[in-house]
């Protein structure tokens, strides 16, 4: 691919240009290690390093142009320097221009909120496919271009990667794309320049305060997504979450609501909840779904609403809703030969634990015990740790606290932070087993027929991240191994 520098620079707010704009660019990159002859290098002031320091290296490598916030002291005559107020934002606009505005060539829907993004975005991708369209997906679990899957490293990739995927989707003939929009992505301008056909808000509870510092900042971050939506987009928000109306306060998009409690454009009701599915009522129509838990009714209701807002025929959408199946590692149930059930779930916030545990309690209806295995991630929000332990203890008969990606922290210190949330009454029911496989094995040994073992926090993850190294680890594989030895 090649583009004229002046066409690219037209997309951004350039304060100053030194050098010629009549140049061919063969690649746009924010990574000095990728820069080569003809590259346009964007020097970003990152969360860890300031890439302005790499400008001499990219010039030496033959870069044709550099976009930066501050011009270097010595300028090379062969290079064009473009000064911008914000390199990260410029990167997003350049990414859109470099890949020929891919988000305007398909219908892109973004999903934001603390919990339920992966579930909602994935189900919308499945729905579009069931409707006969080609679609793409950018999610925590995987990135998908039509039917080709790529591993995902983040919930929302950087802007160059987002636009590269969207471009591939356009080339593959996709009509729709669905993506998760994390709060980090909103603050770090990863979604700037994207043309969204719709935005969905799931809910907002505590998470990521290591990054945002205050809940107000966290709310503002998510609201920014709705502030950026164009007038021809829809904004679909959960009316039962008190931040729902806040999200759309300043949006130019057409606002719609979904709710289980109040009047709304998309109104849902649970008729029956079971471990293998539910009977629900959406806008007066009864249907069977293969999901469990009230929180999933919210996810399904927003999928229904967004599908209708995208113009899919209502009656067909309702029929296809019954065909949708849970996403990997989200309330994934496995039955042991000894007669207890294991539930693997990605609950990694206090709110998600409350939802999953209350769903299990409702379904068990006092007829079995709940044994919970959970931990909390290292180098992530510390404040949620005691809250997670407290919710797990309050809502389980037995809890085993264990490791969940300690990253660069001491696993024992993370467990100590969690334990601080326990009351004296909780303590006798709580064990601490740092090794996650042993913790799961112990939970299974304690389980009697009819009990439920909840293994929370890692869901689809197939690794345990310790000191920068991802060691293979999969809750579902560990459980299967235990079950195989029970036969
Ligand atoms: C700490 C953090 O937020 N980092 C994010 C940030 O990275 P950054 O660009 O600031 O990184 P940096 O390391 O400071 O580097 C700055 C620049 O120097 C460049 N560089 C660096 C080294 C070099 O030799 N040469 C060079 O040019 C880099 O290419 C980069 O452009 O911006 C990048 C692009 O937007 C993100 O991919 C990256 O996410 C990191 C990988 C990360 O782990 N983030 C987590 C916290 C995250 O984003 N999580 C959310 C949500 C999770 C959830 O909702 O549960 C997510 O969306 O995944
Ligand atoms: N609508 C919801 N409301 C509350 N909790 C939910 C909801 N949907 C899912 N959950 C819980 O949150 C967990 C994560 O769900 P999901 O992966 O869909 O969320 P996410 O927003 O994509 O998370 P992440 O921030 O890690 O990307 C699930 O395993 C479940 O426990
Ligand atoms: N996207 C979330 C996922 C957390 C999952 C949990 N397993 C952990 O590692 O904390 C994060 O990076 O904060
Ligand atoms: Mg996700």
From TrEMBL:
Location in or out of the cell: Cytoplasm
Ranges of residues in domain Mur ligase N-terminal catalytic: 25-72
Motif Meso-diaminopimelate recognition motif positions after renumbering to this chain: 404-407
Binding residues for meso-2,6-diaminopimelate: 380, 404-407, 457, 461
Catalytic activity of the protein: UDP-N-acetyl-alpha-D-muramoyl-L-alanyl-D-glutamate + meso-2,6-diaminopimelate + ATP = UDP-N-acetyl-alpha-D-muramoyl-L-alanyl-gamma-D-glutamyl-meso-2,6-diaminopimelate + ADP + phosphate + H(+)
GO terms classed as biological process: cell division; cell wall organization; peptidoglycan biosynthetic process; regulation of cell shape
Annotated ranges, domain Mur ligase central: 111-305
GO molecular function ontology, one term from the record: ATP binding
Post-translational modifications: Carboxylation is probably crucial for Mg(2+) binding and, consequently, for the gamma-phosphate positioning of ATP.
Record key words, sorted: ATP-binding, Cell cycle, Cell division, Cell shape, Cell wall biogenesis/degradation, Cytoplasm, Ligase, Magnesium, Nucleotide-binding, Peptidoglycan synthesis
An example Gene Ontology CC term for this record: cytoplasm
Positions carrying N6-carboxylysine: 222
Residues that, per the record, bind UDP-N-acetyl-alpha-D-muramoyl-L-alanyl-D-glutamate: 32, 154-156, 182, 188, 190
InterPro entries: Mur-like_cat_sf, Mur_ligase_C, Mur_ligase_C_dom_sf, Mur_ligase_cen, Mur_ligase_N, MurE/MurF_N, UDP-N-AcMur-Glu-dNH2Pim_ligase
Cofactor list: Mg(2+)
Mur ligase C-terminal domain location: 329-459
Protein family according to the UniProt entry: Belongs to the MurCDEF family. MurE subfamily.
HAMAP family: MurE (MF_00208)
Name listed for the protein in its UniProt record: UDP-N-acetylmuramoyl-L-alanyl-D-glutamate--2,6-diaminopimelate ligase
Species in which this protein is naturally found: Sodaliphilus pleomorphus
Upper classification of the organism: Bacteria, Pseudomonadati, Bacteroidota, Bacteroidia, Bacteroidales
